[in-house]
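Lab notebook, design round three. We kept the backbone fixed and only want residue identities now. Task for the bench partner: fill in a sequence for the structure below.
Input structure tokens:
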């Protein structure tokens, strides 16, 4: 029986009540309980520009703590249209926004672009882009859809992480020291975590140290404990058991040199490990296990100047060094084999952003330059004999971009924001004894967009954005080479260094409303992509009976959809309720087609909706929230022909979170997730499966589980 009786009506409760309320058009614009940030307000000298014409969600550290967020999947749990996919061995590897994921979503930390994904194989080597500990974050901004200012990769959207600042923990002025100790537990992964935070201001110097340690096990599925299940092979229903851990250090020192100049240094170190018994990959004669490690290091310096002059009112420039390395080791008992592979991306980046207010024009402009070194190496040891190879040649990448954006208050009601950007990139490869150089790849792109907002009244605003975007191909798309020959046949994957960058034309438009009683937003979007990079078959031959494959630019992919979200202050809408009651809802729908072959695009997430009812006591001493999530099943007609066996069912989730502050310095947070013990699968976890004998029960998410933490401030 399909469980579709309530999700859509509930997701629209906030909008319905607001529309029916005769005083919704009141002139008062004060909003006391806003759950979902629809747009970012900023003054002329703000560091981040308001994203006019876009749908933007902001999540701050208070939201992260109240909802017991531990990882990227938790972070986007209540954001329809945004999903994180996970794998029992490689963990959370990607975020999907409006049907695009991987390197088609731009991810940055404090303005520093994160390393590309590298996953030429599905078993022995796969790197994700999940090398950030969320306890180190001040806020996360998710921009849905294309964004010219962000440059290459911002096709599906942008995820902007901003790490914590010393000032967030200190008094507004004067010498001060603050600290906190946080400890928590998450039952779904049997994870214990601890975070120590210390901030100080002495004179003009501010400093911050945040250290987080996590120690846990595999993310269990609906089967529960994986350790007692010894089943091997593709029919295994439990996830593979593993021991996981991570350490993260964030250190900052900032100096207010004088009224107009501030400098700062930052250091980040992230280290995660996972050791697994790969029962699902094993057989009776070949036991497999893995030992995986990811490390990200960053050292950075910034200078901010607010001395108004002809060129700018504010200048911020920064230089950062970052090294991200993933090592995947696989042990196989057959022939005492060890497969040891790594991918390392080292970068030095320079970024500058300037702001100048000229009458009604707030002009922002800037540049970025990134120099990257990219390397993969594979070692295969069988019975004591080691051979080495590469999937891709060693490469250097030089990436340059420059942009200008004008936020023009054309009238009191109309804001226009034109923007234009130029990008240039070049990959230079070097052959060696392991692999030949497949040649260089270079290209450039000129992209532009126009965004607009028009205030119809003080309550209602229409907005829209149209423009073009691009994404440069990454290392494994350009240069991945692999040939395999066995008794059952042979195949080859050949590089294509002539790939063109992916291109997009996007348009979105919507209406938002906001007043004392709440806020609501409706947006529709249409994205047209060309030169979409996908692996294709070149056919078979006598030399390669199982076929030859390569990456090519597809002509035409289209993604379109609608999103609705809103929040309502129930305390002001219903007289019988005391202060503190709020209701929020959101729903997202998208569809996508590969017009090259007439097949649906499998990266599109099914229709989903979230409704939340929350309460915060007037004293802010305690509160809680009940969230209801519904997701439609992925129907066969919405899946490409070869993947239709993966069709999924609808599911409903109920989550309950609460917090309590017995004293000003002590806070408890607790959550009960999947309260009804629903058995379900996330579509993006399974859409790349190819073995039809696979037991899909292994890919179910956790049943009923809980989390708890306590924070002591001093």
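Proposed sequence:
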């Amino acid at each position: 029986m399909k469980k579709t009786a309530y999700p859509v009506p509930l997701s629209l409760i906030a909008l319905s009540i607001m529309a029916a309320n005769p005083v919704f058009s009141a002139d008062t614009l004060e909003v006391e309980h806003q759950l979902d940030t629809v747009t970012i307000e900023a003054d002329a000298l703000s560091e981040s520009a308001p994203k006019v014409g876009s749908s933007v969600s902001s999540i701050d550290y208070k939201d992260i703590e109240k909802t017991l967020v531990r990882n990227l999947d938790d972070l986007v749990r209540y954001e329809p249209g945004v999903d994180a996919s996970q794998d029992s061995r490689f963990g959370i590897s990607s975020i999907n926004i409006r049907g695009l994921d991987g390197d088609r979503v731009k991810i940055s930390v404090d303005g520093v672009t994160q390393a590309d994904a590298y996953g030429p194989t599905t078993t022995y080597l796969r790197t994700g882009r999940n090398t950030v500990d969320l306890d180190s974050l001040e806020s996360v901004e998710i921009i849905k859809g294309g964004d010219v200012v962000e440059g290459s990769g911002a096709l599906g959207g942008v995820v902007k992480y901003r790490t914590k600042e010393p000032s967030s923990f200190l008094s507004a002025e004067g010498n001060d020291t603050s600290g906190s100790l946080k400890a928590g537990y998450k039952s779904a992964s049997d994870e214990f975590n601890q975070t120590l935070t210390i901030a100080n201001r002495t004179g003009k110097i501010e400093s911050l140290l945040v250290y987080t340690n996590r120690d846990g096990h595999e993310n269990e599925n609906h089967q529960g404990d994986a350790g007692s299940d010894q089943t091997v092979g593709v029919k295994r229903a439990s996830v593979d058991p593993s021991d996981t851990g991570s350490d993260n250090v964030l250190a900052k020192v900032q100096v207010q040199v004088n009224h107009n100049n501030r400098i700062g240094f930052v250091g980040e170190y992230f280290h995660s490990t996972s050791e697994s018994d790969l029962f699902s990959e094993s057989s009776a004669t070949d036991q497999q296990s893995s030992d995986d490690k990811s490390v990200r290091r960053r050292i950075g310096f910034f200078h901010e100047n607010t001395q108004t002059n002809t060129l700018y009112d504010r200048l911020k420039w920064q230089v950062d060094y970052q090294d991200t390395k993933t090592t995947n080791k696989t042990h196989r008992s057959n022939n005492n084999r060890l497969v040891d592979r790594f991918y390392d991306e080292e970068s030095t980046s320079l970024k500058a952003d300037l702001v100048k207010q000229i009458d009604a024009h707030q002009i922002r402009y800037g540049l970025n330059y990134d120099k990257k070194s990219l390397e993969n190496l594979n070692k295969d040891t069988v019975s004591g004999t080691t051979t080495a190879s590469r999937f891709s040649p060693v490469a250097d990448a030089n990436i340059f971009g420059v942009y200008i954006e004008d936020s023009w208050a054309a009238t009191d009601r109309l804001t226009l924001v034109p923007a234009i950007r130029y990008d240039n990139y070049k990959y230079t490869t070097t052959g060696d004894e392991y692999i030949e150089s497949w040649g260089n790849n270079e290209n450039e792109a000129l992209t532009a967009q126009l965004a607009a907002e028009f205030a119809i009244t003080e309550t209602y605003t229409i907005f829209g954005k149209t423009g073009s975007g691009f994404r440069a191909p990454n290392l494994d798309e350009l240069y991945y080479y692999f040939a395999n020959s066995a008794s059952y046949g042979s195949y080859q994957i050949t590089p294509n260094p002539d790939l063109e960058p992916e291109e997009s034309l996007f348009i979105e438009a919507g209406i938002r409303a906001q007043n004392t009683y709440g806020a609501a937003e409706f947006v529709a979007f249409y994205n047209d992509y060309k030169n979409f990079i996908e692996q294709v078959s070149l056919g078979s031959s006598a030399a390669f009976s199982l076929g030859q494959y390569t990456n090519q630019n597809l002509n035409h992919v289209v993604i379109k959809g609608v999103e609705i979200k809103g929040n309502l202050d129930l305390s002001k809408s219903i007289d019988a309720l005391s202060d503190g009651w709020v209701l929020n809802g959101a729903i997202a729908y998208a569809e996508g087609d590969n017009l090259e072959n007439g097949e649906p695009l499998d990266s599109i997430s099914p229709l989903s909706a979230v409704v939340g009812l929350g309460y915060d006591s007037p004293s802010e001493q305690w509160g809680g929230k009940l969230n209801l999530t519904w997701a439609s099943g992925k129907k066969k007609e919405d899946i490409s022909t070869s993947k239709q066996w993966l069709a999924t069912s609808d599911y409903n989730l109920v989550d309950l979170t609460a917090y309590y502050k017995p004293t000003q310095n002590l806070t408890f947070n607790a959550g009960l997730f999947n309260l009804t013990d629903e058995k379900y699968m996330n579509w993006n976890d399974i859409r790349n499966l190819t073995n039809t004998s696979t037991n899909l029960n292994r890919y179910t998410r956790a049943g009923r589980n809980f989390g708890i933490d306590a924070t002591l401030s001093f």
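Keep this in mind before ordering anything: Confidence is low (pLDDT under 50) at residues 1-46.
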